[in-house]
Amino acid sequence: MLIADEVNDSPIEQVRLTVPITDDPTIPCLTFRTWALGLSSCVLLSFVNQFFVYRTNPIGISSVCAQIVTLPLGKLMAATLPKKVFHVPMTNWSFSLNPGPFTLKEHVLITIFANAGAAGPYAVNIITIVKAFYGRGINAMAAMLLAQTTQVSSFFVSASNAGHQWQCAYKFDRKIFSCSVMAGLVCSGSTLLILLTCGGREFLFKCHSSGKQHQHLSSIDIRNKAQLAKNLVSLMKLRCRALHEDEKRPKGGLSRMQFFLIVFISSFAYYIIPNYFFPSLSALSFVCWIWKDSVTAQQIGSGLKGLGIGSFGLDWATVAAFLGSPLATPAFSIFNTLVGFIITVYVLLPITYWTNAYNAKRFPLITADVFDSDGKHYNISRILDPKTFSINYDEYDNYSKINLSVFFTYTYGLSFATLMASLTHAFLFYGKNTWEMWRKAEKSTSNKFADVHTRIMKKNYRPVPQWWFGILLLIVLGLSMFTCEGFHKQLQLPFWGILLACAMAMIFMLPVGVLLATTNQGPGLNVITELVIGYLYPGKPLANVTFKTYGYISMSQALTFLTDFKLGHYMKIPPKSMFLVQLVGTVVSSSIYFGTAWWLLTSIKDICNIDLLPDDSPWTCPGDDVFYNASIIWGVVGPRRMFGPLGLYSKMNWFFVIGLLAPVPVWLLTRAFPEKKWIRLINMPIVLSGAGSMPVAKTVHYISWFTVGIAFNFFVYRRYKAWWARHNYVLSAALDAGVAFMGVATYFALQNYNIYGMEWWGAEASDHCPLAKCPTAPGVVAKGCPVF
């Protein structure tokens, strides 16, 4: 326990209310219950989430569901399992199936397992487009290793960082620095430990210190209370006062568990209607029903193919499928996203389309497909050499340049702007504080400024041995190189591509981490990585997407893992236990995600092929469709022939400049009017990426997401704060879980046997706006469309 002069607490109320400042190192952690419930949660979430990825509305299940469900199961196991101690032969190891009451630390580690299952391998997209879109084979072992190495490599330094948190947080540990540089060789997710090891990690995770450092940290934390939302959602569920204390049910009210069960059952029961009996409930577009023969009216009213005016969905999967649960996103972030969405979809898009810029009227209003100059879908097989799986430039020059819909064009331009705005925003608003904390971390040689949580971890637990990381480094390095260079070089990417992807992640880790910490949203590196490798290594689609996967996952998975490490740090989990749970959970989840994807891709006829699937089939693969078209744009053709001097869209490069300058006016306004607190809530990276999930997400998804998010996180939060604090996140978890389990049950019980509901108007998985996809340029012929 702590001595008296060490006790202090965070200046931030949210942290004080949720994070304990005491610890009992004798509490069991890695018990049989932890392994049983943790691995079960990891496997279940991995299977369900990958199962839904290929569906039209790919709902995802978060670890919050596992947190809630495993609590009564853990208590049940503590009450019923035998307490007999088992000894492992020829070792000093022993264990009991029931070491005592179900503990908070066991629950935390189960949550870490569940988190591993909630985050799927990005590499599965590569497997999908090769098999389902390009119609080619891929070695199963190469595919599995790709899924494993991209995930495990991201784990490496994150786990190392957690094992040495007390060393890294406030001084510059040269051993960890060296380890960080080595980890860059395998494109590990926290490659950027030059930034994260000390000042960067401390800044991103806001270790709320004592003493003089409060003058630097508290100004940031108090100003951005929303930054705690994501991690404190977990902490609130794990804190003794939230779940592990005996909860006193309010008079005439419900306990959290009762509320969860009621919402879960209701969501489970209701979802059979939009999922099976009445799929059209997912997108109701009334404008199309009124003007059945007008292309323009349907372009304006369709929620799936158009602007979505008057469209909405009565389906939780529509609300949360692509943008995540709006209940877990801060209101100010929702409003920033809303502004960006309105500017992009209702200002830029109509002006550009109806003035026919870039020959916009030859193509559908909103689509991710690629077209030739006549407005027909691009025949990619015509320009790809089937033997080398690379572009034939002579055929390309004789055929047609790649054409995009005007919306898809803006999507890439705004992604350029978002990335640059992230750098400028982080520099202007947080650069000074980051530099000051970096200097303090580098100069400090004691624990003088270490926060209470860091001191507890240093006192009670030994760090993970360095040789554990050394062995893991060698294994992951070898497998990563073998995956890319072996198997007859099916993935096309040379070894230097892995190293370059890591270097790019190093540049963007800190600014993107700042955005994620302060807004619960942040841009990915998918587009910028595509652009770079597309210039350096054009004409190789698999090399492009493999490079993108290593670079993108290097950053995004690092942030996910480090969030878990922070949770373990706050909840006083031994570093070795964190290491093992993270490693095992990552390997297991990657295997389940790969196995589920491989099973679906080989068992469902015409999966992802919209032209051949039945009209009511849910297996449309919306995310993979965009991934496939991106591989054509950046990999097959390359950015030089798309956004460079040989392409049609070179003007999109001006968005780099727009993004670089966009945060400057906001920053100047905050300096000129410091008393106007609302100005600081304007976040230009979020505004610029307001429609960034489109065209995978549709306008109906955005409209439904905004409606629910503003209703709960603005109006309900302001008027019924006590109810919101008690039930908001439980409501989100229960709705997600109900939809997911009914979706899986419906498939295995009915759809797997080709048993579908009755044929009627509402059974179509569409919004009944067939003309919304039609081009409006004179003479362009498209299936099911009038010719103007």
Automatic annotation (TrEMBL):
Taxonomic superkingdom: Eukaryota
The keyword Transport is assigned to this record: yes
UniProt membrane topology term: Multi-pass membrane protein
A Gene Ontology molecular function term of the record: oligopeptide transmembrane transporter activity
One Gene Ontology term, aspect cellular component: membrane
Keywords for this protein: Membrane, Peptide transport, Protein transport, Transmembrane, Transmembrane helix, Transport
GO BP terms: protein transport
Residues passing through the membrane, by range: 175-196, 259-277, 332-354, 407-430, 467-484, 496-517, 579-601, 652-670, 700-717, 729-750
Main location per the UniProt record: membrane
The keyword Cell division is annotated on this UniProt entry: no
Location of the protein in the cell: Membrane
InterPro entries for this protein: Oligpept_transpt (IPR004648), OPT (IPR004813)
The family this protein is said to belong to: Belongs to the oligopeptide OPT transporter (TC 2.A.67.1) family.
Name of this protein: Oligopeptide transporter 5-like
Organism annotation: Dioscorea cayennensis subsp. rotundata
